[in-house]
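Hi R.,

As promised, here are both runs. First protein below:
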Amino acid sequence: MDKTAAITIVGAGPTGALLAILLQRRGFTQVDLYESRNDPRHAGAQSGRTINLALADRGIHALRVAGVFDDLHAALLPMRGRLIHHQNKSTVFQPYGQHVNEVNYSVSRLRLNQELLQIAARRPGIRMHFEHRLEALDLENGIAQIRDLKGDRLLDVSMNPLLAADGAGSPVRRQMNQARLIEATETDLEHGYKELSIPALRGGFVMSADSLHIWPRGNHMLIALPNEDGSFTATLFLPKRGPVSFESLTEDSQIDRFLTQTFPDARELMPECVAEFKANPVGFLGTVSAFPWHHAGACVLIGDAAHAMVPFHGQGMNCCFEDCIEFDACVGRNETWQAVFSEFGAARKTNTDAISAMALENYLEMRERVAQPKFQMQQALSLELERRFPGRFIPRYSMVMFHHEIPYRTAFERGEVQARILDALTQDTVRVTDVDFAQAEREIDARLAPL
């Protein structure tokens, strides 16, 4: 492939920015990033849509491969586990793991995007075009029509190739699907979200800063992640329609009563929550599935454009970053873009399907199961089995979040086996000390090959 020909990336979010950095490092001399929105380095985030991201081992590994992790480290806030807030205001801390390195990091999506774009802007050969919206694809002639919104000009951009990192609502994917070049579905979750905020108190955190805070309430939940300035970004997940829903909560008094009764300790820390509830939009939650991800050697979907998922496993960004380094590795092994695209899609599809399924499952876990004694007991048992049988039994959450070397598909399949083992071991026990560990050893030896 010609490394002097221009590569077009549509979408300058974190995925597009990281992909541009990786390709420039690999020797491509012209990488053009096109983004329909304003330059986020000079503009604030869209109001009500700035959910914090959880950076985990897979994302960190990708950033290290790209040589940019050290530039971003200052923006990260470590979280050691979940702090569960019960309705009576009591709390329970559930550690993510039992090893020092088993932490996730809260990071502002805006800050992360800004930092990656700053790094990309310093790399020779990377050019960024903001307020440039893709309008049409002429795949037969290899031309993308992109409108310069500032100059109101329609540009013909050569697809040499075009890499679509344009998110869950990807115009590229939708046009490829409409042309019947791929099969794609967008499945809307019955729940949506609204962003709320917990301000800092005299520049300090009003809750523990090293935790993901969760208020699980069965059919809905509130979460909060820490920010650098001492505040928390809180997100309310709620059905879009129904007796208790975003649709039904319209009056100030209704909203205040719901938040006060359902999340009493959080409500005390959110002085503007009623106004924010009314002002902020209901965010979309859904799953995107597509295949194939490419058309010939002309264009390819990457990141959320190919496989957007619900945010309940904290892996959306991490999965997208893993896409980037897998794609970069495929570039290094192949001579044509068509071969790159084919290998990339074949390698990633089963893994992205697996994490999408696990993300949906984790919603039930976060909003309901984390508060149940049986779940808490099985979680403690998982950590004990990991201690007793290292390399054999690793909790599924740990495989996903802290072991980038374990593919998502492997984590999913082993997690299914481990769940059945945990159920068998806890049928008649309520304490870890009552578990029959001889039976546990027999089950693990028979059903879990060493990793």
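And here is the second one, sequence first, then its structure tokens:
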Amino acid sequence: MGDLKDLNQALVGPEHEKRFSDQGRPPQPENPRKYVPVKFKLAFAQLMAFGWAGLSWYLALPWIADLSVYVPYPVATLVVLGIAILPGFAFAFIFFSLLLDRRPPTPRYSSLPPVSVLVAAYNEQHNIAETLTQLRKQNYPGEVEIILIDDGSKDDTVRIARAVNAPNVNIIALPRNGGKAKALNAGLRQARHDLIISVDADTCMHDKALENIVSRFLSDPPGTVAVAGAINVKNSRRNWLTRIQEWDYFHGIAVVKRTQSLYQGTLVAQGAFSLYTRQALREVGGWPDTVGEDIVLSWNLLKRGYRIGYAENAVVFTNVPETYARFYQQRRRWARGLIEAFKLHPRILTVFRMNSTFFYLNLLYPFLDTIYLLCFLPGLIAACFGYYFLVGPMTLAVLPLGLMNNFLMYHVQKRTFADSRLRVRRNIFGFIFYVLFAQLLMSPASVAGYYAEFMNRRKTWGTK
């Protein structure tokens, strides 16, 4: 979202510098602002979301009755739940959670602990020099060890990486391509420090990204063993598809992670840019050899009672798919990774935690995507010819809350960017198409991913 020329401008603000306490956590402020318990915020957001869903259900009863003329009443009920009621509940829950989110500023430290940065690369000759250069330019008040793991690239990735004059870069050249998880685990075995940071090989970093993600880790509650960074789109000006994805990352992904962290647990520390403790990684055996290695790893940590934070000001920019074929493969892989996580860690649903709402919403994704693909889209086409039994005036009840959600998301994210001296670039065309067509682009890939994992189809990486 921010111009790349702004990436190297420093963060500014009146925050005073703080040093480590004996436990590595910052001292508490002398006059903290009035604190609203997180449990109260959760209860209020859930109450409002259930209230919205209840009102929508009451108003939708005539719609269900009309639809039941064509299909059995239970089927009509499920269709209306999937098209309107459940999406409305999710919109309302995120909206009211964002209204209550008052995130404290990230503390500043005079020095920070050393970190090992793992960069797994496969055929990244066009990006690796810029990624390593950005890492070297980080304003990080501590030692940074960079480990590039080349996963059997067939291009000039290794040669170009060695040409970058970076004495603190250790290059591990694996003889053959074994997948991202194996590459990261190879780097983990060579890493010297207790804080491990994963960075994708095509990632361009804001110059405070490392400092902010480590500072967030140190200031987060005890039990935090990982922190997800804020991923944005670098190649957003390439075509209409990347413009849509710019809003998906800026609104959808970032805001959901922010809301999850409000309730003491982001669900995924994504591989593109996240921090982990070495001890936690060793406890779970490192990155699993799965299609969705980052979500499976994250849920393994959460299942054990650990917490994953989110550093909204640890900003990086990454390349996203520029063709629908590659986009389809990416979202198919993400959907398959979600089912992998549920299959490998089913007990995550049996222990109540403050972020449990998001686990159950994730559990509903296969149902919601299938209803959208098989019912909403045909109903939308039928509505164009005057047949409103599937998609009609009642469907519009979700739109006001959706628009309010997007307005609030934009306000919150714009403020976060301004704190990092980044500006939100104009992308009205992309926003309109994001609101109208993003789900249309994602649902076919997601349904294919769910089906592939349920049927245990052969696993391939595709694209990131």
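A quick note on the second one: Residues 129 and 163 are 8 Å apart (CA to CA). Let me know what you think.

Best,
J.
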